[in-house]
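Figure S7 source data.
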Amino acid sequence: MFRLNVARQFVRAARMQPALAAPRAIQPAAAPVRMFSSSPFSRKDDYNRDDVDAATTAGEPGESGAHEGQYARTQDSIRVEYPEEEDLPRSQPVQGRGGVHDKRTLGSFSLEGRVAVVTGGARGLGFVMAQALVTSGADVAIVDMNKDEGQLSAKSLIDTFKAENPGSSKIPKVTAHFCDVSSPTSVNQSLTEILKEHDKVDHLVTSAGFTENYDAISYPHDRMQKLWGVNVDGTYLYAVAVAKHLMSRNSPGSIVMIGSMSGAIVNVPQPQAPYNAAKAAVRHLASSLAVEWASAGIRVNCISPGYMLTALTKKILDDNPELQKQWTSLIPVGKMGRPEDLMGAVTFLISDASLYVTVRCGSARRRGLHLHVSVDRAMSRRVPGVRKIVCLICEASLGWRNRESWPGSQLKWSLKPAHVQ
Ligand SMILES: NC(=O)c1ccc[n+]([C@@H]2O[C@H](COP(=O)([O-])OP(=O)(O)OC[C@H]3O[C@@H](n4cnc5c(N)ncnc54)[C@H](O)[C@@H]3O)[C@@H](O)[C@H]2O)c1
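Tokens for the predicted nicotinamide-adenine-dinucleotide complex:
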């Protein structure tokens, strides 16, 4: 089977060679040249090779129609640069969901008495997540490059809480602090400031981050370094600073990193290779730190949102209506997420409701059942006695197993609710 595949690829490669030299003319219905093939179809007289080959990799570009691959490619023409601050409207608190209620719920979701830091909390997803934590009982320190907006956002969270909880005996403390998360000095200074105001920190959400769309060939190097500096270094630096503080107090805690589905799949059509790589780094950083700090009682998880309609994405889509159509056409539920759709996820992962959850990367597209398959791959043939386990849903490679622990001749599969990556 393996040899036949290699042979087929060899034949296909051989047939593609002349096409590189000169464009191929429209071919007659009968197949002119076929060196040899293992395909049973080739032996049928009525088989029209061109119809089938046009839709495969044997066809010339465009041979199977104008639609060919159009929703699965990046387009270099799309170049979205980060909008100017003054072009972005401020995020507004979610209204009407934070008041007292008498519905029964698990006490372990409560964050009463806890202090959480949210980086990038002045706006967008970070702001809504900060509101979720305040609503669930925490005091919150908003950390952001944009301190003015951070202060306005802190005030609006307190005002909304007061309006939705009239007569509440305890008003949450919400503060705002300047920080450039890509700078270790700035991170340490802001944490010192936070500890002066709040005495301690129990939780961290890292939402400071940004994306830009340049094709890889033209990406300015300094912008790429900045992007990685904020998305990757910034996530790492704040997580380490908070973990050090927790360890010095000998206290458990939890950290939620905001990744992106772009860390697991290649988003289209906008080209954004450095952003995708940065979010893949955040995802694996969460996994690595979760393992490293598990013994200290510090849980680390990662939320990988899909397309969320924040003020920033709304501005980008208002300027590029075609992009919105393409994005939503790729979303199984047919619409973008609202920032408040992540309030439950962040509260769950930060709170004691998820005490035995660490290293969980929740992705909007990849929740649900995971299909683990044990396959005899080419490589395992070279190492007799082992088989490769892969997840067909999220493509994670789950390592190797001895044949004895998962016996069977060719292929075995099992459905799992989720797996630790
Ligand atoms: N919006 C989406 O559709 C989406 C989807 C997946 C992942 N994400 C990720 O979620 C996070 C938040 O995105 P958003 O859409 O809310 O963006 P946003 O621009 O609305 O908010 C980001 C916040 O981070 C702050 N910030 C930027 N650089 C900083 C720095 N160096 N130091 C401190 N603060 C800084 C900004 O001032 C801003 O307040 C990002 O990491 C983003 O990559 C967003």
